[in-house]
Design goal:
The complex is a heterodimer of chains A (296) and B (274). Chain A has 296 residues and is mostly helical. Chain A has one domain: MetI-like fold (Orthogonal Bundle), CATH 1.10.3720. Chain A is 74% helix and 1% strand. Chain A has helices at residues 5-36, 55-61, 64-96, 102-115, 117-127, 134-141, 157-183, 187-195, 200-211, 213-228, 232-238, 249-258, 263-295, and strands at 39-40, 50-51. In chain A, strands 1-2 form a two-stranded antiparallel ribbon. Chain A starts with a helix and ends with a helix. By secondary structure, chain B is mainly alpha-helical. Chain B folds into two domains: 2-30; 55-272, Orthogonal Bundle (MetI-like fold), CATH 1.10.3720.10. Chain B has helices at residues 2-30, 35-40, 52-60, 63-94, 101-113, 120-130, 136-160, 164-172, 177-188, 190-206, 209-214, 223-233, 238-258, 260-272. At the A-B interface, helix 1, helix 3, helix 4, helix 5 and helix 7 of A face helix 1, helix 2, helix 4, helix 5 and helix 6 of B.
């Protein structure tokens, strides 16, 4: 087929707006952050930047607070696989089952995602208020007065509070991912399993779970990469405090630049975040690809 | 046996329903209360329905202005993403014989993978350089860009699935590229555009980090930003804070209730690309 001049013109003209935006606001910033990560800069526009080599990176990697923030991200991943995955898989089983009201359930389970992170975070900050919050009231009702304290300013516990609120918010969303996998399983397989004498649990274990592998893959990749860059919900609930104990890498990146004016160090945080994210998604893809090769 | 099992399942499913919906209900109830009522219990029904909380929030926190700002941003972002994304996808899908389209595809893929947070400092610098601080147009470009890569990915995938014989028939009938895109392909792509549009709309409405770094003028706060600063500043009156949260929820919840099937499909389409 002969390529006409007009095709070139149209092709370039149509793709150009998108290309310019992505080059200017994604590709250039990443390169810029990479350069910045080897410099120090106070963030005042027009002032000179000084090269410092790897100092920003060594500074970060030897700082306790960085590893603390990585640990917090890790708690998000633990919560994701330990709480969110079973929960949303269970919900997916429920809404695809033959129970009544499944449409209503589906709609209400998914509701939290729609509200937006800041709204959810503020709502739960009120719920978790130690003096008049709903959770405190519930604990009082159950005579667990000893367990009532300021959860959101107690180190480590506050991270877990945020993690659980995060799971509350995304349970419905991940439920849909699993439900999409579940409805794709043909009914005959379930019937065959029942004829072969499987009970309910065995059916889930040997038929449903293996056939939902793709959903688990999507969940894992989203969970791991999402946990690494979590920002909004932690920022709105604890501001990374007290004393940075509930910070995640993304929050450190923000505070280093816009509160402590250490823009070079913040640039190094960006690059670490980016590299970790890419490595993790490649690793996740590899893990799941090998497994699917084994089974096919 | 089966009956017992079903009962357990129903109990569990309604328990989670309660856990999901109760915080919403409590927030709505609390938005009509004064401090004394809130301190004495969140679960109770307010004795008098204080609509003044809402007007109070609207006055002291400019709640309605910020909600309007966010709705405007969300609407414009959706429009931009749809137009620019469709143009680019048309080129990527229908002009794929051009040699430079393959590397371009790769660049757009990079756009999907880069976490937003990595770019905040350079974008902040660019904004200072071009006068993009407190500037909705710049914020709009940023929002558009970060949704564009995914939109192009979805649209191109969808367009590749449309039969080419349709194009050929249109071309024989004398359609040019623009006509082909707007009056043949656009109507067919409606479902994918709708799902992606809802996804982008919700993103644009509740986005936080860029409005945090790029907007400093209080009159231009987006809703997430305004809520955070309002709850940070005014710790005395709780009713209006709850009222603000409730007002902020209304637009997206209404959209969700009207189009919930589409929203769910959109969320799924967004997830599967990962």
């Amino acid at each position: 087929m002969k390529v006409k001049r007009k095709d070139y013109v149209i092709g370039i003209a149509f793709v150009l707006p998108a290309l310019i935006l992505i080059l200017c606001l994604i590709v250039y910033p990443v390169i810029n952050a990479l350069i910045l990560s080897f410099q120090t800069w106070k963030g005042i526009y027009g002032t000179p930047r000084t090269w410092v080599g790897l100092k920003n990176y060594t500074g970060i990697l030897s700082s306790e607070i960085f590893w603390k923030s990585m640990l917090n991200s890790f708690w998000f991943i633990v919560g994701g696989f330990g709480v969110l995955m079973p929960l949303s898989f269970g919900l997916a089983l429920l809404i695809t089952s033959k129970l009544k009201f499944t449409r209503f359930m589906k709609t209400s389970y998914f509701m939290p995602v729609i509200l937006g992170t800041t709204t959810v975070a503020l709502m739960w900050t009120y719920m978790l208020n130690p003096e008049w919050g709903a959770v405190a009231q519930l604990f009082k009702f159950l005579h667990l007065d000893g367990a009532i304290f300021d959860w959101l300013s107690t180190p480590t516990l506050n991270v877990w509070c945020v993690v659980l609120v995060n799971e509350w918010m995304y349970a419905g969303y991940n439920m849909l991912i699993f439900a999409a996998g579940l409805v794709a399983i043909p009914d005959e397989l379930h019937e065959a399993a029942i004829i072969d004498g499987c009970n309910g649990w065995q059916k889930i274990r040997f038929v449903t779970l293996p056939l939902c592998k793709n959903s688990f893959k999507i969940f894992s990749i989203l969970c791991v990469t999402g946990c690494l860059k979590v920002f909004d919900i932690v920022w709105a609930m604890t501001r990374g405090g007290p004393n940075n104990v509930s910070s995640t890498p993304a929050i450190m990146l923000y505070t280093q630049a816009f509160q402590y004016k250490l823009f070079g160090r913040s640039g190094a945080y960006s690059i670490i975040l980016l590299v970790f994210g890419l490595i993790l998604s490649v690793v996740m893809n590899r893990v799941f690809r090998q497994e699917s090769d084994l089974y096919s | 046996m089966n009956k017992v099992k079903n009962t357990v399942l129903y109990v569990f499913s309604f328990l989670w329903c309660a856990i999901t919906l109760l915080p919403l209900l409590i927030t709505v109830l609390a938005s009509f209360k004064n401090n004394d009522e809130i301190y004495s219990g969140l679960f109770s029904i307010p004795k008098t329905w204080r609509f003044s909380n809402f007007s109070n929030a609207a006055q002291t926190a400019d709640a309605l202005v910020s909600i309007g700002n966010s709705l405007l941003m969300a609407f414009c972002t959706t429009l931009m993403v749809t137009i620019i994304g469709m143009l680019a996808s048309y080129a990527l899908s229908r002009k794929s014989f051009l040699k430079f389209m393959k590397p371009l595809n790769l660049i757009f893929m990079v756009g999907v993978m880069v976490p937003v947070h990595c770019t905040i400092i350079p974008i902040n610098t660019i904004a200072t350089a071009v006068g993009g601080k407190d500037n909705y147009f710049f914020l709009l470009l940023v929002y558009t860009t970060f949704n564009l890569a995914q939109a192009i990915f979805l649209y191109t995938g969808f367009m590749d699935g449309i039969d080419r014989s349709m194009d050929e028939a249109a071309i024989i009938d004398g359609c040019g590229d623009i006509k082909l895109l707007t009056s043949v392909l656009l109507p067919i792509c409606k479902p994918i555009i709708a799902t992606e549009a809802i996804f982008v709309f919700i993103y644009g409405y509740s986005e936080l980090i860029f409005s945090l770094i790029l907007i400093s003028n209080e009159a231009k706060y987006t809703v997430s930003r305004a809520m955070l600063s309002f709850t940070g500043n005014h710790t005395i009156d709780l009713g209006p804070q709850f009222a603000f949260v409730v007002m902020a929820m209304i637009p997206t919840v209404v959209i969700y209730i009207l189009f919930h099937e589409k929203v769910e499909a959109g969320a799924l389409a967004g997830a599967v690309k990962g």
